[in-house]
Specification:
Length: 394
């Protein structure tokens, strides 16, 4: 009997997690497809490379025991169940997990951005190549580099914090007056914003209108006419799913991570755009959640082909953290919902609510208390109050 062939596109958190979940099952042949000429690495550790704290060897990603091909997937033919690779080769599949991840948002419409990018003075912080370039520019500047960071989410905030502590001159630009509300809720975002304003030059509620690379520096013009002369511009404006035909804006999935209207296709991680009755339309792009989604997609695949139990709907419960100006910012679950309230406790904890349930928790210097919420998320208060809380599948 021919083994069921499961092909996984993407060798990051979601893809490798899915591959590990499938590798031990008899009757399943798994092929993991990564990018051409790239050794898989742990993306959450690239900031350490950029800041000169981590070597390249330490961020290599251990690979699961499965067939691996380093040949970027370019097109999926849904009708024939075939993947076309960059080399021109093709792979047939019985089932497919799309976990090709995300790409950083750029500044395509800003005059001068393309020239600055070509000059190497405008860089995102999303890939290993980005991290290496940032390290090279900062090292070339010596003790005090002038760095502008555009964006003020967790990646941008942690970058500003580390570089400021190293003695560099930081300008932090954000389109929002209070950056980070969408990711962490207003109470946490306000505290982080106040810390930024006391430690680095902040330009909140501003956008970049023009970038002009010069011989020895780069000049940024903001929308209010302010000019900033810097050595490096770091973009941290979030991510979008990688474009992979026939999906240009990610793969729409249901609460089981099954691609809508496509039998045998699943998606996980930064490539998955979720549509469900619980949280609505949402997307999470951080490492631990990607790994959890990859595991769930693999378990769903096994169930659909009669080789495992139904894992149930996917509910985000994964944790994340960042050290910003000596304070540990922690979160668990889905922290992008605008309805929040401060938990009355000794530690600073914010609950993110959807209807009658807490769906995420964020906090400052309260890692243990935040993480304890993991298995209590997505459960209606009515169930908790009546003592009918039961464990739900990851």
């Amino acid at each position: 009997m021919t083994a069921h062939h499961a092909v996984i596109l993407g060798a990051g958190a979601a893809g490798t997690s899915a591959a590990r979940a499938l590798a031990s099952h008899d009757g399943i042949r798994t092929t993991l497809v990564g990018q051409t000429d790239e050794t898989p690495y742990t993306r959450m550790l690239i900031k350490g490379v950029a800041f000169g704290l981590t070597t390249l060897e330490l961020i290599r990603l251990p690979m699961p025991q499965t067939d691996f091909i380093a040949d970027t997937a370019e097109f999926v033919d849904i009708e024939t169940r075939q993947v076309r690779l960059a080399s021109g080769a093709t792979i047939d599949y019985d089932s497919l997990i799309v976990a090709t991840g995300s790409r950083a948002r750029g500044l395509d419409s800003v005059p001068g951005a393309e020239q600055a990018e070509e000059a190497g003075t405008l860089v995102t912080l999303h890939s290993l190549d980005d991290a290496v370039r940032i390290r090279e520019v900062i090292n070339a500047c010596g003790m005090q580099a002038r760095v502008a960071i555009y964006g003020a989410g967790l990646t941008a905030s942690e970058t500003a914090s580390v570089l400021q502590a190293q003695g560099h001159q930081i300008s932090l630009i954000a389109r929002s007056e209070i950056p980070g509300i969408a990711a962490l809720g207003r109470p946490v975002a306000e505290r982080i914003a106040a810390d930024h304003q006391s430690r680095v030059a902040t330009f909140f509620g501003r956008t970049i209108r023009r970038i002009h690379p010069e011989t020895d520096a780069t000049v940024i013009t903001l929308d209010n006419g302010t000019d900033l002369t810097v050595d490096l511009v770091v973009l941290a404006l979030g991510t979008t799913p990688v474009a992979l035909a026939p999906w240009s804006e990610g793969v729409a999935v249901d609460d089981r991570l099954c691609a809508r209207d496509l039998e045998g296709v699943y998606a996980a991680g930064g490539m998955a755009v979720h549509h469900d009755d619980h949280l609505g339309t949402w997307r999470i792009d951080h490492w631990d959640d990607g790994a959890a989604q990859g595991m769930h997609a693999a378990r769903m695949l096994l169930h659909d082909y009669g080789r495992g139990e139904d894992p149930g709907p996917y509910r985000p419960r994964s944790a994340f953290m960042a050290m910003i100006y000596g304070q540990m910012i922690a979160g668990v679950g889905y922290t992008g919902h605008p309805e929040t309230r401060i938990e009355q406790a000794e530690e600073f904890i914010v609950l993110h609510e959807q209807d009658d349930a807490v769906v995420g928790v964020s906090g400052i210097d309260a890692v243990g208390a935040v993480y304890q919420w993991s298995q209590r998320l997505h459960v209606a208060r009515s169930e908790q109050n009546e003592g009918r809380v039961r464990e739900r599948p990851e």
